[in-house]
Model the fold of this input.
Amino acid sequence: MNYSFDFQSVTRNFGPLLDGLVVTLQLTAAANLIGLTLGFVVALMVMSRWGVVRWPATMFVEFFRCTPALVQIVWFFYCVPMLFNVFLGSVTMGIVALGLNLTAFNAEAYRASIQAVPREQLDAGIALGLNPLQRILYIVLPNAFRASVPVLLTNGIGIFQQSALVAIVAVQDLMYQGKTLATQTYRPIETFTIVALIYFAVSFPVGQLVGYLERRRATLAE
Amino acid sequence: MAPLDFSVLLRFQDALLTGLLTTLELTLICIVLGCAIGFFVGLARTSDNRILRGVSGFYVEFFRGTPVLIQLFWIFFCLPLLLGTELSNFTSAVIALTLYMGAITSETFRASLRSIGREQYDACVALGLPRWTQTTSVVLPQAVLRAIPTLLSNCISLFKESALVSAVGMTDLMFIGSNISNNTARPVEVLTAVALIYFVIAFPLTRAVTFIEQRILTKLAV
Done:
């Protein structure tokens, strides 16, 4: 191998990469906001007694879980403007697509932990005369949220990685800026390595945190 | 907007089918190679050798901590430069997705290896079983059986992630779908059909995961 590395051509152009990282983080934060809130609502809908509520929610979850995120993103960018005549900014569109994807995955995480809330606690809620909304807010939600934190974090960091896909539809995120820089400088190795390291530097600590939380839960449960 | 006309798909069914076959071929090759790598990396991560543990840990964390898209780009653009040879896009797609699959399945194998209770190892010692019998008759069957549902989920993830190879110009289902959609200017019909094709394959597999978890594994009491 006789390739002379030149990392300076990348470090000199760090500005665009940082701009890209900011966009990526914005996408991630906004998508997580949607996923964390809407995901809980969808989880409750999936578990609803009434078919009218349950079926659409289940179809939504299954559809987003069983198709590639790339297809979802491309679909949103091309089809939503045509079908509904709405024209949103590309970042907004990316947020909506990623947010709905995350909603489906988080709904599953919430559902699993809601079902794990012990029956007796709900009975106790009824015995105390709490109405259904109060039971959800004060018994189900805190329990389910705490139990699902590791999975929610894993999903959240998953969407941080999936957000790189919006580069394909020309949203100027970290991946897109990296691609541009690699072409401009003719330095794909250095550029893509640094971009990968930036992604890694954000994901890795969160992954470690998830591991820590899971271990702590396991020891607390014993 | 123009009325939807799904008959446009009939003209392109052969092309879509070819794309689907490429997607499936790629997925299957990477499943086989990835699971093999994953099993050995899973063993390496639980080994007593610190170097083996360190190297395998780094590999897994890095591939799980960066977007698949950048892994693919790195291998597609950078590996040929480093090696000084040409790589076809099929080869680079296989390398990238295999390494990704290896990383995620190794975690599955590791978790299932760890799920075998301490008391079983103690029982083996008490029964005076040799180390080899312990591994082949006690540890391995349970580890593999327990890993099956998660491995199947990994396969579904890989099938979905394989849509990314369209970004490096491999003519898979996604690539052919977006080409047709651009040429016919009918993104709604074509992209929806592509999404449905992915769904029709992935959805039954997710049901199979639940079925295996609930029925087969409880019946075998592992």
